[in-house]
Amino acid sequence: MSQSECIFCRIVRGEIPCAKLYETGTVLAFLDIAPVRPGHALVIPKAHHATILDLDPGLGADLVTAFRTVGAALMAATGATGFNLGLNCNASAGQLVFHAHWHLIPRVEGDGLHLWPSGAYASMDEMNALAESIRARIA
Ligand code: 5GP
Ligand code: ZN
After folding, report:
1. Does residue 136 form part of some domain?
2. Around ion ligand 2, which residues have CB less than 5 A away?
3. Residue 129 falls within a domain, yes or no?
4. Which terminus of the chain is more exposed, N or C, with fewer CB under 10 A?
5. Could you list the residue range(s) of the whole structural domain that residue 69 is in?
6. Would 27 be classed as within a structural domain?
7. Whether the Cβ atoms of residue 74 and residue 102 lie closer than 8 Å to each other
8. What spacing in Å lies between the alpha carbon of 33 and ligand 1's midpoint?
């Protein structure tokens, strides 16, 4: 999708309204239009990057500052005692908007939202072999 059609680029340019929470030269945060919980926010880099795999690592500090600032404010405003920070990378992981973004979801004890189900490895050998395979691709 081109940047002219990307819905989040259009929000950054002010062509589509949003409930804005936070803005710097590089990062924007606004409320998700279909919240898991009231206060569910999105943090996006202003520049168009389809997924996190395309993102400039130099944006890391700006993004972490946004997560901390918006996360603390949305807890204070909603009475939440915590929040989940998550990102969907690619369609198989549930990504619908291909402009990289993070979800900040306010949480309270016992709210019934279960992230994520626990699984298991068949053995420690299986786990260690997979770790070795991943490490080999990082090196
Ligand atoms: P994804 O599944 O790509 O990680 O999440 C995309 C999110 O963007 C969804 O939670 C959806 O509700 C939100 N969203 C989609 N279009 C709009 C919009 O026009 N405005 C706002 N504020 N949120 C949007
Ligand atoms: Zn975009």
Report:
1. no
2. 6, 8-9, 48, 99
3. no
4. C
5. 7-109
6. yes
7. no
8. 6
Domain of 56, CATH number, reads: 3.30.428.10
Tell me whether residue 117 is in a domain: no
Tokens 């990289």 correspond to what residue?
Answer: 100
Residues 89 and 52: beta-carbon distance below 8 Å: yes
Q: Ligand nearest 36 Cα, by number?
A: 1
Contacts of 6 (CB under 8 A, 6+ apart): 48, 97, 98, 99
5 pLDDT higher than 80: yes
Span from the CA of 103 to the centroid of ligand 1 (angstroms): 9
**Token digits of residue 52:** 């996190």
Q: How many domains does the structure of the chain reveal?
A: 1
Closest ligand, as measured to the CA of 9:
2
Report if pTM > 0.85: yes
Taking only Cα atoms into account, the Rg of the chain, rounded to an integer number of angstroms, comes to: 17
